[in-house]
Amino acid sequence: MSELMDAVRAGHKGRTVSLLEAMTDAERRSHLPELKELRKELRAAPWDAPARRAYPTLYLAGIVCQTGASAVAAWIAASDMRWPTPSPALLLRLLGGRPADWLADLAHRLAQRPESTGVSYPLMSGLVRLAGCPAPTTDAYVRGWVGDMEDNRQRGCTLEDRLRADPHLEPMVSALFETNDIGGRLEWGAGQGPGTWAGALARLTVDGPLDRKMIVDACVSRLLRGGTSSDSRAFLRLLTTLDLTREERSERVADWQGLASDAPSPVAAHAQTVLGELALAGELTPRQLAEMSGAVLFRTEKKLVRAQLVLLGKVLARDAASADTLLPAVAQGFGHQDPDIQERSLKLAERHLKKASDPGTRAELLLAAEQLHTGLRTRAADLLGTSPAAPEEEDYQEYLPPFPEPTRLAPPPATAPEAAEEVSAALASPPSVAEFERALDGLVRWAHQDQKGLSAALEPVFARCWWDKDEAQGARSAESRFITNGSGVFTASSGLEILLATVRGKIRTGKLLAVVRTGVSPSGCAHAAPAAAFEARLWEVAYRIRTEPLPFLLSTPTWSTGLLEPDELVDRLDAYRRSGARVAETDFAQALLRVRRADPVAAAAAAGRAAALGTAEGARLAAWLTAEVPQPTSSRRTHGGRLLVELNEVPDLQDGFPDAYRPLGEPVRGFKGWQCYRHDHALQRQWLAILPERRELTAGWLLPEMSHLAVDGARGTAGVLPQLAETGGAAGEALHLCLAYGLSARHPEDRLATVDALLTLAAGGGLSAERLGTEIRLLIRTGALKPTRLAESLRTAAATGAYRTVWEVLEHALPPLLADLSFGGTPAHGLGDLVGVAAECAERCGARGALPHLDRAAERRGTSMLVTQARRLRDTLATPATSPQ
Prior knowledge:
The structure is a single chain. This protein is mostly helical. Among the domains are: 416-626, no CATH class; 634-809, no CATH class; 810-885, no CATH class. Helix content is 61%, strand content 1%. It has a two-stranded antiparallel ribbon with strand order 1-2. A hairpin with a 2-residue loop joins strand 1 (634-639) and strand 2.
């Protein structure tokens, strides 16, 4: 081994540098193969291996011994070289003797690398300085330049002074406006002084090297291009700091119009202010103002829309001749979703209509008045002298999505390789109930028919499993990872892996027997009952694979919801009887809970066939199919502002069931004060198939976690609600409370999932609008729900065509909340949004009549959202119906 390699391996930086400086280029190149071999060796070494101390010296030696700029750039930016590296000054010293063109090439190659590679900016800028070449303007270099200017603000001079002294100032500033997502780095030290980016750049356009027109144009162009919110803030601050003159503003009218139309709210507000000043100064034509107003009035930000209406009012007051041009623009506010904006627009038209001389202006207003809500149409008719043309009314048609039809499970895998494919797919992504049950049944069937062939087919699957890596520890290693407090099912996939590990021989028979005998240790959480039942079946099936393989599973469902047809279960029990196979206790228990009993005729016929089998299981099934299906009684409790339902004991789910299944019938006591490890939402979907005809009981288990969506801002739990709505059984307090919490969830994806569940439940006839409205009202009063989120969700549900469904929910939710106002109470924040949704739904579905306490809310003073929407709803409900509803 050479002296240089000894120094590199030992990590002696000083010795390595001395040896490199004393070598010729040819001698350096001769060591490159050894350096590359060392690099390969270190890549394979454990992270804590002593040999890895050689990385800093290897990094240094590899840079110096390379000859091509491309190879050096690749070595510098390599991900495996991100260890404590030598200082840029040392590298520049060692590379300083290379030709200028070579140094320039290296600088530009490094600058083209992504910023994430961590290439040092001082190294890149030092190479540019040594080469005397133009500075690169790539994203990585510009970001490094900005960071260097900020990191070195302790030099005793301002940012303006440092920028002024930079020889590459103009190209770097120009590149600054072309760099994406740079705004966050320009925002430190917000203000306008020389120590801020906005202040320094503005000062440099006054008496410095930067051209003012170029900077203004670049800033406006960057705002027009859009970007992140931090970009908008940073460049808007620079624009306002530049303090444009009247001439500079007036020559960019088209740019301001574009910003007012499409830019983020703060930027649009600035552009609106500039255009407003120009309009009031007579430097904006009525046609230009009308075009700008059409764009602004289309926006959803109420503050911008109101400001635009104020501007239009000022211009109309000053210039009567502009009425024919501007009033049609005002009428565009008639179609705004906010009734307050509609009313302001109508008032403005009332005030200035007499100034219009063109008959076409009145016609345009008349046409636009069709968009006004019911309460304002009469005023518009009085203003225009005639009733707005209205389409012929027809009976309202409610549109609900078709109730999802369950799908029948495909036949079981016909070969061991097919079973292995099913298992592999179920492990690759969270499986549905159908996918999980088919994979589980395939494993059981082929473990019974050809366990060696199944093992061979599963080899590619075993290779991807974490528990199959440690051959030294064997079964004990897998057991220690799988069996924690008696359970190893953290996800649906890990449930399958227990069976795979059993087939592979990674879990000993004694351990499997111990878990089957002692049962799954309860966690004490709200999910303990379904989790114990789900896991117990898997552990017993795994034990039977090792000792007495089952020919197939009795509990594999017929349908995707988890339901099992009674005739199919009788056929399976008959096959067991004829083959002499012993039934697995938990498998049969799960089959009983899944068997369909909603059709009494089919259940009675299957019961007769089951009794004729002459087996204990047949007799148990016959009795189960003919027994009454009791529903759990419930009570309510309040915990930390949330309402929860406690379900009482269900004896028929305890009598005659294994120990692991009896908790399913025990009382559900709701909130436990903590969340357990079973937070995998895909696993919760599997629980729906445990009791597919008792969704109220399942909802009781899930309710505490659903409350976290609205109260604590949790995420993802509501994804199970649409599938829960598809299952059978009564929909009681627990399920409706789950919907109420989900509709006010913090995250949009959870609210959208709950809307799907609401529509599905309504399509299936299980939704009680009165019950849901009552739950919503109670939860708003406790502060558990935010009305603004709730309004957004209900508006989304209504927009699908379910206006009457949403109206009926709000018809029961709103009166008690409005009644609070009659006694001097403070309305809940966002209540006006809910009333607005109710008004829109009433208009669409033709609801008429009186709503208790609405008149008192409509008669309140002021123009708040609540008062405005209450008046709109009152006027709508009071409008005579013109066609039967």
